[in-house]
Predict the 3D structure of the following.
Amino acid sequence: MKLSHYKLFFEGRYKLEIVDSVQSQTNNEDKIIKQGKLTDNRTGKQYKIVNGIPRFLDSDTNYSDNFGLQWNKFKKTQFDSYTGISLSGKRFWDNTKWTKDELKGKVILEAGCGAGRFTEVLISTGATIISFDLSNAVEANYENNNDKGDLMIFQGDIYNIPFPDNYFDFVFCYGVLQHTPDPDRSYKEIFNKLRNGGKISIDYYLKFSSSTPWSTPKYFWRPVTKKMSPQKLLNIIKFYIPVWLPFDTMIRKIPRFGDRILAFMRIPCWNYLDMGLNYSQRKQWAILDTFDALAPAYDFPKTLDEVSKMIESEKNDSVEVFYGSNGVVANVKKK
């Protein structure tokens, strides 16, 4: 954490104790606080700063440990700068419908950052980014993005975000809410952090009414896999995906019937044929996203109507809900 970020965001509420710091390489008048402690002036609670990241946690364990494992194992797999393909960028701009001009100079909250694939996109806008995750995936994000722009990363709980309500100009939350214990409450928590006139964009897993090669195997196996050790599950997936992927590819290409056959077979495999990935990349994405589908403690899909109901508020100024790149997207402007 930069000392300047502490002064800007936390000085009014938290007392800072620095144990280890280094000079900022981009600003001679700033420091990077590597190790230290924040003490809440109101409650007396203490939160460590570890490896440059404030840890606003009340426990060392949480329901998102699987995400910490996957994003520290696959730190750059889904980064546009790594694949050479604008997959994250296209998903971000097509679904949020925001523009770089309206984001420049604004303060943006990214709720649930993972390894930082979207953080990389947000940094490119010239905005100030506050990015957090409940898991230790924040360490991957810090390694990937911390020196690229005006970015502050912390580890924390969506139900206890250490910022006041009505604070952020924009709030961005993709691939997260369905994995929280109470998605409706989670949405309200991040919506409350949005200032009047601000915009929020979320996406949400779609609940399917019929069999698909994605949802059918996933929800068939999840009662078992979500109880497994994340490392054991990852080892199993890393073993069978390279073997199964060529067969999955052949079946998936069968006109009309390929998807039905795969849904019937119920072998989980997130095989992305039409994204422009080479075979090696496709294999890595398949391992990563198959684990991402099977490992989370919580997974609550919703229909478009259910997402619409979740975001209902008298504080909404304008609302757009539609089928997006990864399920249902909701874009809201706050009054």
Observations:
- Residues 11 and 46 are 14 Å apart (CA to CA).
- The domain at 63-206+308-334 is CATH 3.40.50.150 (Rossmann fold).
